[in-house]
Amino acid sequence: MSIVGKLAPISSRMTIADGVYQQLRDALMVGRFDPGQTLTISSLATTFGTSHMPVREALRRLAAENALEVSSGGSAGVPAVSVERLDDLCRARVVVEGLATELATERMTTAALIELETIVAEHEALSDEKHVYDMLDRNRAFHFAIYRQSGSEVLLQIIDSLWLRYGPYMRMLSTHIAPQLETGLHEPFTHHHHLIIGAMRQGDAATAKREMVADIDGTLGLLRQLCESSARR
């Protein structure tokens, strides 16, 4: 997969190493790299227009977060997918994201609800326009707008780490969705999002949590099928 055009030159407002790290991290989280794909220092340095050092540092930091697997030669690989790893990640997601949703419901404001409704509308519009990565980015924005509202820095950090490790499965999801978008057969994954907003508007933390768990489990069911299909090839 070519990443040219997906990554941008580094702004002078941040260090080069931080800029490389942040762009790679964002790209991994929304699934812009294939499971098992090798990322070489040389190719990334050329893409970013930097020396090897900031790329090497970024890959080291991402490996420390379990987002990449670094080889002895310095290149890095996107982790392979498996049903076992997927189930493990989703078990953790259900626990921490469910709790964050409960806490967020108790702290929800009118302004935050309007933000959530806006994000959902943008998500659905992007589905109509067949922009798969932008659509998945709006999905992420919806979730994290809720989790930030929880007021828990610790939960937010844990969730962020889990989503980063979930990246290879987002790649599988985008690959599955893209052809459906082109034919108009894809229905955006926003059904539970609307129900979450409705529950939060009523201050019903238990229902909001239940719908968040259902949202995670619904995607899990599809991804399990994709993982099993991939393993049979």
Automatic annotation (TrEMBL):
Keywords: DNA-binding, Transcription, Transcription regulation. Transmembrane segments: none annotated. One of its GO terms (molecular function) is DNA-binding transcription factor activity. Residues 14-83 form the HTH gntR-type domain. SUPFAM superfamilies: GntR ligand-binding domain-like, Winged helix' DNA-binding domain. Pfam families: FCD (PF07729), GntR (PF00392). PROSITE patterns: HTH_GNTR (PS50949). It comes from the Bacteria. PANTHER family: HTH-TYPE TRANSCRIPTIONAL REGULATOR MCBR (PTHR43537:SF39), TRANSCRIPTIONAL REGULATOR, GNTR FAMILY (PTHR43537). This is DNA-binding transcriptional regulator, GntR family.
